[in-house]
Prior knowledge:
This protein is an alpha/beta fold. It has helices spanning 2-23, 35-52, 121-136, 159-165, 223-232, 255-262, 268-275, 288-293, 334-347, 373-386, 401-409, 434-454; strands spanning 56-60, 67-72, 80-86, 106-108, 111-113, 143-149, 174-177, 181-182, 189-191, 193-194, 196-205, 297-305, 319-328, 354-363, 366-367, 391-393, 413-415, 419-420, 431-433. A hairpin with a 2-residue loop joins strand 4 and strand 5. Helix 1 runs antiparallel to helix 3, helix 1 packs across helix 12 and helix 2 runs parallel beside helix 3 (121-136). The longest helix has 22 residues, at 2-23. The radius of gyration is 23 Å and the shape is globular. The relative contact order is 0.19.
Amino acid sequence: MQAWKEYQTQNKDRFLDELLDLLRIPSVSADSKYKEDVARCADAVKEHMLKAGCDTAEVCPTAGHPIVYGEKIIDPALPTILVYGHYDVQPADPLNLWTSGPFEPVIKDGKIYARGACDDKGQMFMHIKALEVMAKTNSLPCNVKVMIEGEEEVGSSNLGKFLEDNKQKLKADVVLVSDTSMISMEHPSIESGLRGLAYMEVEVTGPNRDLHSGVYGGAVANPATILCQMIASMHDENNHITIPGFYDKVLELTEAERKAINNAPFDLTEYKDELGVQDTWGENGYTTLERTGIRPTLEVNGIWGGYTGEGAKTVLPSKANAKISMRLVPNQVSDEISDLFKAHFEAIAPKNVTVKVTAHHGGEPVVTPTDSPAYKAAAKAIQTTFGKEPIPTRGGGSIPIVALFERTLGLKTVLLGFGLDNDNIHSPNEKYDVFNYYKGIETIPYFHKYFAESFGK
Ligand code: BES
Ligand code: MN
Ligand code: MN
């Protein structure tokens, strides 16, 4: 579409400047210190929706951070696309590892460096700009509803209720999300699944107070040592998870499905070099792509206890703690896995300590169809702008709300992500290629066009 291309070319610089302004707002949802900034970011998103051509846009308060909702209905007879994204970001720490300020975006070597550049402000904003391109050139092929939340990074705890309360308003034919990654620009891909999540916190308590490690050490169980032993025992020699029942519901893939997953371009040497590791790790019998795509895992996200300050302090800590997450695959159920973990962790605790296990937020895994008209529209859109057919992949990350779109609204999702695995999301120096940003804005309107055409419109 010539008009789209022209409009995008003419407004390119502004599209980038507007994203940079959005990245300057530290909308960290996890830290209450940033509550005002999160609210300010929601307002900014709303203004952008209106500016892009939405008929209406509103900031909807929730028990947590607000949801921004806008829509442009051109003809009720046309299909409707519900765009979902999030304007909240992960905390920026550790700050000292950033080469420039996390909320002072800079462009280096064609990449935008800032917290949220890729996850998900950069990707979410592509949809608002794509909407602007279509609206301002009077060429919207579908109705568009846009829902951008502010709590994705803390588990979307208030979005489920919002879906329940607004079923009518959110009526659509498909959900479109850009919050995942591609293999590379040379090998465009579409994620056709996301893993679920069960997130636990554990506390191991030994003696009733911190002790002198010389006076008592060797005679009283050290909770830090016990915690490490307990965690270590949760993988066996094949790196299988030892929690009884953990794999019971795991859907095993057919040889053909596994072959398809392993057909995706992947260079193990490059992978290792890029991460600075001598070797990879994982469940025996599975490739790296399978380990991150179709197999469940258990990871320690944080572990602490005792003295961690400067210098040395001889102490036998009273308590040790860890945050442990498990990534889930079809047909595992988050609450069931949390219960299995809790029962197991309590069962393996030796008598010389007491343990406390609490569950944090979780989410269910999803697999999105690759034979639906929506997926085909996405594949065709990528074919149009990349000149290549996208490869379907399985993503390792989680977007818990996607399962709820299906359960609450009866809607399937298309994961049209433009990030790269090495964009450092959740890490210092998060980045997003300017090229990917523009490519996304260019590709999205084609999804709308081909999706409408699949309805005969
Ligand atoms: N955008 C990510 C999820 C993602 C990243 C999916 C890369 C596929 C590829 C999302 O913002 C995220 O970080 N989700 C969390 C879960 C959430 C409940 C905090 C995650 O995956 O850890
Ligand atoms: Mn995200
Ligand atoms: Mn994230």
